[in-house]
Design a protein that fits this description.
The protein is an alpha+beta fold. The chain is built from three helices and 19 strands. The relative contact order is 0.11.
Length: about 300
Amino acid sequence: MASRSLGVVVLFLWLQRPGSANENEVIGILGSSVELECRYADEKSLDKLRVLWQANSKSCLVNAHFPNKREKAPKYCEEFRSRTLFNNETFSLEIWNVTPGDEGTYECVVQRNKTMEFELDHKASTALKVAANYSKPTITRLGNEMTFTCNSSHGFPEPKLHWTIPMDNSLYNITEQPATSEPDGTFSISSTIKIKSASNIKLECTIENVRLLQSITTIFETNSSGGSVNNSALSASPAHRPAILSTLALLLILPVILYIYWEKRLCPGRTYAAGICVEEAVCTNADVETENSLISGTEHR
C-alpha cells in the first residue's frame, strides 16, 4: 500500500486543496535566495513522515522527502533542479537564484504513516512575491526640441511612472507607454513628455516599486543660459529611516565627546555631567605645558 504510485498521491492532493486560511506571504529579491516555512509543529520523525513541496501552478514536485527510498521516483520540476534545498529539521524549503517565474503559491504537505498508509497530517501555503529594484530613471532631451523621455529598466513587478512639472497643465503633453517585458522576465518602462517653449524648465520623473515601498526620482532642470542639471534622489522605505536617523545623531554627538575628552586631558580636575562642566578646578599654564611636553615626548619616542 505504501508503495503506490506517487503521481496518484500528488493528483489527489491537487484536487483536495482547501482555501488559503493558513497562507503566509514572503518577498524574494531577484537573484537571491528565499526560505519558505512549512510551519509544522508536531514531532518531526522523518522515518514516519512524507513531506512534499509543490507549486500550485505546476503538477510536479519542487522538492520532497520520502522515508521509503524504494518508492517510485516522483516527477520533479525541471526549472527547480539544483536550485532548492529541503531542511530536514524545520521542513522549510529554500529556493536559490530567485527568478520572476518563481512567483506563485507553494504548499508544504506532510503525510504520516499510519497502519501502512500515508494520511494527510499537515498542509501550509506560502505566497512567494518576487521583486527587483529598478534602475535610476534617466531623463533625455531629444535634440533642441522641448521633448523629453524618461526610462528605467530591469525591475519587478511592473512599476508606476509619473512626471512632476510645476507649470500649467496646458503647457505640456505626456505620452505614456506600457511596461515591456525583458528576456530575463523583468520590466522596462518609458514615458515621453512634450513641453511648450519656456526659458526655465524643471522636470521630475519618479519610478515607484510598490512591492518594495521604494521610489526613485530624477530631476532635470534648465535655466535661461541654457545650462542643465540632472540629478536624482532616492526615497528610502520606512524600514530604513531609523538607521539614517541614528547615523545623523551619531555624527552630531561625536564632536562633543571628542571635545570633552580633549579638555579633560588638558585639565583633569574638571567634572562633567551630560556634557556640561559642573565642577572646574584651576588649570594653570604649568599644567598645560606639562601635558604638552608629555605628548611631545611620546610622539618623539
